[in-house]
Amino acid sequence: MTEALITGGVLGLGVFLLLRALFPARPGLVARLLELDAAGQGDGPPRFQLVLPDEEVGAFRRGLGERLARFYAARGWEARSVRADLALLGRSFEGFLATKVLLAVWGLLAYPFVAGWLYLMGWEVSPTIPLWVALAVSAVFFLLPDVQVRRDANARRRDFRHVVGAFLDLVAMNLAGGRGVPEALLLSVSVSGDEANWPMARIREALANARIVGITPWQALGQLGDEINVDELRDLSAALGLVADDGAKVRASLTARAATLRRRELAEIEGRAGERSQSMLVAQLLLCAGFVVFITYPAAMKMLGA
Fold first, then answer.
1. Coil, strand, or helix at residue 41?
2. PANTHER family per the record (predicted)?
3. CA-closest candidate to residue 153, choices 222, 228, 224, 249
4. What is the DSSP string of 85-131?
5. Cα(210)–Cα(174) distance, rounded to whole angstroms?
6. Which residues fall within 8 angstroms of residue 148, CB to CB, at 6 or more apart?
7. Burial class (CB in 10 A: 0-12, 13-18, 19+), 230
8. Residue percentage of the chain with pLDDT more than 90
9. Which of 133, 137, 188, 136 has its CA nearest to residue 166?
């Protein structure tokens, strides 16, 4: 009876997916409202895309990712945090979705392996156990890309904030030399020509594209901050937009922001160092406890008569 239910469920799921592929759903109300908002905001400053698609994504993965992205868009699922993390890492949203789905499908292959292992071991168990194990493995594989992207993006975002503090100092020094705000911004990012300094390269690319599309440099910085979810760039854009005509106020504001960034970064470094110290202390205590058990085990067994 159980095998029949499982077979019927899998067959019904396959028929459902086939019908959805042949007759795709119409865009929902949320998607239509977003399209209307985007069309209504066409008079605002033009935006540009700074992230290129993944070069290593094959044709199959690209097609699958595009279909999944359209599925997300039809239902109004924006996934802003994931998109910001992927933009910071230089990866495409379509490739990310395709990777998640393909890993989940690979996780389902655990069913025959688990079932075959149980059969070889001679254990008479219900076939639902391998099925639940395969579903659990598939769910874990589906969530692994999110964990990896979030971890890598947090590390790169910390590096980006560190570079933003140095960038603010450079802009303040160029303003003190009598240059205007746009010229100071461009000269500050041109100081670092090393390609390994990728945050400066991203800022330099944003400022270069701003000149092409015809927007101000601080608007470009704000768009970059929105794209990669870095609050410091958004705050810098707002501050420069308010006091761009007063060089003295800009210098004082940038110097204060750079000092605040350094203090916060120092506090975060001290906090991470304290966490690692506590982890090392716990590891040492566990090692000492294991050593004590190892030393006292023979005496305790002798006293108990074992």
1. coil
2. INTEGRAL MEMBRANE PROTEIN-RELATED (PTHR35007), PILUS ASSEMBLY PROTEIN (PTHR35007:SF1)
3. 228
4. HHHHHT--HHHHHHHHHHHHHHHHTHHHHHHHHHHHHT----THHHH
5. 20
6. none
7. buried
8. 3
9. 188
Residue 105 tokens, joined: 């499908």
Q: Does position 53 have pLDDT exceeding 50, yes or no?
A: no
User: How far is the C-alpha of 69 from the C-alpha of 276, rounded, in Å?
Assistant: 40
Q: Report the interhelical angle of 247-303 vs 128-176 (nearest 10°).
A: 140
Q: Which two tokens stand for residue 230?
A: 């870095």
- pLDDT score recorded for residue 184: 80
Confidence of residue 43 (pLDDT cuts 50, 70, 90): very low
CA distance linking residue 41 with residue 48, whole number of Å? 15
**Residue ranges in the chain assigned as alpha helix (H):** 2-22, 29-40, 59-74, 80-89, 93-108, 110-121, 128-176, 181-190, 198-213, 217-228, 231-243, 247-303
| pLDDT in the model for residue 8 | 64
Domain boundaries, the chain: 12-24+53-148, 178-255
pLDDT single digits (tens) 107-144? 888 878 877 877 777 777 777 788 888 888 888 999 99
User: What residues contact residue 189 under an 8 Å CB cut-off, 6+ apart?
Assistant: 167, 200, 203, 204, 207
Split at pLDDT 50, 70, 90, the class of 28 is low
Please, which pLDDT band fits residue 26 given cuts at 50, 70 and 90? low
Question: Which tokens hold the place of 120?
Answer: 């070889």
**pLDDT at residue 52 is higher than 50:** no
The residue type of 50 is L
Assess whether pLDDT exceeds 70 at residue 38: no
CA-to-CA separations, 107 to 53, 114, 134, 210, 264, in angstroms, rounded: 26, 12, 6, 45, 42
Q: In the predicted model, what is the mean pLDDT of residues 283-290?
A: 88
